């Protein structure tokens, strides 16, 4: 992914957007610091639909036999 300074991105915004639509996103920098990313709307939609790991775990169909039996033994004394 290429980096482009903010002032250059403003001067060439149409070209930066065209590149993003063609699958070439750009990192916008200001004073040498990465500030933003320009990417296509289609790519943004795709990325925004990715569920979090927690949501994936919560949606997993589990049967009672899927998990190992719980060990009910008391924790041993670690001598602390």
Describe the structure.
With 80 residues, the protein is an alpha+beta fold. It has a domain at 2-52: 3-Layer(aba) Sandwich (YefM-like fold). 38% of the residues lie in helices and 19% in strands. The chain is built from four helices and three strands, in the order βααββαα. The protein has helices at 6-11, 13-21, 41-48, 53-59; strands spanning 2-5, 26-30, 33-38. Strands 1-2-3 form a three-stranded mixed sheet. It is elongated. The model has no long low-confidence stretch (mean pLDDT 88).
Architecture of the domain at 2-52, CATH level 2? 3-Layer(aba) Sandwich
Low-confidence stretches: none
Report the biggest beta sheet as strand number plus sense, adding barrel if it closes: 3 strands, mixed
Gap from first CA to last CA: 52 Å
| Fourth-tier CATH superfamily name of the domain at 2-52 | YefM-like domain
Tell me the structural class.
Answer: alpha+beta
Annotation field: number of helices:
4
Helix content: 25-40%
CATH fold annotation of the domain at 2-52 = YefM-like fold
Q: Order of strands across the biggest sheet?
A: 1-2-3
CATH class of the domain at 2-52: Alpha Beta
